[in-house]
Each structure stands twice: as C-alpha cells, then as structure tokens.
Amino acid sequence: MAHFGILCPAASGHLNPMTALGYELHQRGHRVTVVGMPDAKPKVLAAGLEFRAIGEVAFPLGAVPDAFTKLGQLEGFTAFRYTIELFKQLTLTLLQEAPAALQSAGIEVLLIDQTSFGGSTVAQFLDLPFISVCCALMLNQDPKVPPFNTAWRYHSTRWAQIRNQLGHEFMTRIARPITDLVVEYRQHWNLPAYTHPDDAYSNLAQLCQQPAEFEFPRQHLPACFHFTGPYSNSASRAPSSFPFEQLTGQPLIYASLGTVQNQLLGTFQIIAEACRELDAQLVIALGGGSTPEALLPLPGSPLVVEYAPQLDLLQRTTLTITHAGMNTTLESLSNGVPMVAIPIANDQPGVAARIAWTGTGEVIPLKRLSVSKLRSAIQHVLTKETYKDNALRLQAMIQRSGGVKKAIDIVEQVAATGKPVLHQQK
C-alpha cells in the first residue's frame, strides 16, 4: 500500500471532490494525508483522512473563510483579480512550506488540484510522482475552446479561434503574479522552465471530474487525460442537518450560490420573488455566507438553511438555481436535474456556457438578473421537456463515466507502475 498526499485549496469546491478521492484510496487500504491550510482540517478529518498543516502564520485558522467572505462580495473581473492575488499568496506559502511537510510525512505519490499552482513544481523538486486533478472547470488550453472564465460560446470558426487565442494570452498576463513566483522557484531549484501553461500538469495522468460530454470539443489533450465523471461521496462529507419534515411534496426548486460567491444577499431576494407564485417549494441554501436569521423576510416564505445536505436533497429536486459552480452543476446532472444558472465569477461563466451548450439549463448573467427574467427562465426550464431530457442524457453519461472508482483505478496504476496511464479510445 502507498502513502498518498493531496494538495488542494481549502475551499469546499475543491476539498469535497479531493477528499472523495482520498476516501476511496483509504477504503482500498492506502494511507492518505492532505497537506494544506489550517481551515481545511475539519473537512479532511470528516473524510477520515490525515492532515498536515502548512501556512499557520500566513493563513491562520479563519483566514481562508475571511478571504472567501470578501471574494463573495465581489463579482466579474473584480472578483477574478482578487482571486489572482489570493492564489498568489497561497502559492507562495505552498512553495515555501509544502516540501518540508511532504518529506516529513513520508508522502510517496501526490494528487494535485490544478488550482494548487506550484504543486507540480514542489512534486518535481522532491522527485515525487504526481497526478493532476481538475476539480473546477479544466484549465487546459485549446485554441478552439474559450478561456475557462469566459461565457463565450463554442465556435469552430477561424474568427473564434483568434478570439480564444487573444483571450488565453490576456489570461496569461493577468496570472503573471502567480507564474512569476513559480518561475522563480523553478530556477532556484534547477528545474526545467515551462514552455506552455499546460506543462504544469502531470505526464502520468490527468483526471477531470467533468464527463467528456460536458466539455466543448477538444483536439489538444494529452494521451494521459481522463474524463472520469464527478467525484462526490456523501460518506466523505460531514453531515448537515435538514428539516426534511418541512418539505411539502410540491416540485422542489433548490437554490444555492455555493460556499464562496454567496454574499450577494439581494440575489436571494430576487430568487424568492421569482419563485413566489410558482406551484413549487423553494429551498435556499446559504452556503455559510449568512444565517437564515440574518436575512430579511423573503417573499413566499421559502425554506432557508445555512447549509444543506446537497447530495441527498438533489435526489428530490426538480430544478436547481445555481451559481454554476462545477460541483453543484455536476451533482445536479448526476441526478438528472436541469438548471437555471446565474454565474458570478471565476470559472462559473465557463461552466454556465457548457450548461447552455448541453441544453441542460438556461443562463442569466448576474448583471442582467431580474425577477421577471428569472421567473421566465424557471418556467421555461420546468415546462419545456428538452431540458429534463438533456439532463437525463448527461446523467446516463455520468453513470457510465466511472467517477471516483475509475479515477482511483488510474491513480493506483500510476502508483504501481510509475508510468503514464493512457486514455483508452472507445
């Protein structure tokens, strides 16, 4: 049995899928240690995994939630710039402190979230085999695919490729504070320079929790890239209490803006008003951004909770209103639930573009959100059968994709052989 290490941000959207992978490894008899900021510890321990803290000075307990609270008050490009600055500081801490923590823990193989920038540099410095994991929207660049943080539609025309290329170049410039740090440490550690942003990902295996059908057509993925489907497991998450006895039996509309972009409380007012006259029950999960008591009374008296047992609740849901976070999106599709997406920041516009592209929901940009537009989109998704049919189509594809078990089969093969695991063409 091997000792696996996990590197990922201390955010639910990354910890939930990564600890699901770690939980499966642990169930198969391996030792698993998550190395991260102190705020990650509760979720790691809830999954039954070991934890090793770094960043106790730069990011003491409570620092990451405070940063996400500020991020949750922002939107669009302003939020993205703040994210870049936050991840610059996280990357510096990772580069400074992770090598010693990994060595002292005796880690043999690493699973590294794509957004743990600098993680692959640490792995190469320690000469550790590593697997890259896409928990959010995959970051791999392709000239035919728009940058991950844009709402641009997919087109295969020449003009679209030029647009995409300019977008990728702009993104590279914006992310330079992070990449400059990585370059500095690679030079200091005598590691070869990257010639392309995708050089930071594993040449042994790259895992993506999107099913292939929930991604624009791509031509430039490495042979070791695997679309495996979602990484979710209720057994690896801390339980959330929920008043199931208050459900009325009406069609259920579940609304969540995730655990980061959830500070725009006026959005919940709009959601409640849009659903007020529908023959449905609205459940709102605040994601820790506020408490039900702190909200002004909402129209229609929806059932409001601070956190919801999302995996359980989605089994009863008719429609999801979402910020287009990758986990909520994939968990909705895993249950055949269509969506109305209100993307706010970071990769959410890109996820929303794929919701529209797959026909599994409607999209309303936050700046265009109004009660009338949201109510119209909800009614459209609820009454037009194609949305449900497409969600069920994606559900079937997810069920065939393999999910956590397929991903860990690949991880174990890398650990056993030290060689690339190549995608098998159907």
From TrEMBL:
<keyword id="KW-0808">Transferase</keyword>
<dbReference type="GO" id="GO:0017000">
    <property type="term" value="P:antibiotic biosynthetic process"/>
</dbReference>
<dbReference type="InterPro" id="IPR002213">
    <property type="entry name" value="UDP_glucos_trans"/>
</dbReference>
<dbReference type="GO" id="GO:0016758">
    <property type="term" value="F:hexosyltransferase activity"/>
</dbReference>
<dbReference type="InterPro" id="IPR050426">
    <property type="entry name" value="Glycosyltransferase_28"/>
</dbReference>
<dbReference type="GO" id="GO:0008194">
    <property type="term" value="F:UDP-glycosyltransferase activity"/>
</dbReference>
<dbReference type="Pfam" id="PF00201">
    <property type="entry name" value="UDPGT"/>
</dbReference>
<protein>
    <submittedName>
        <fullName>Glycosyl transferase family 1</fullName>
    </submittedName>
</protein>
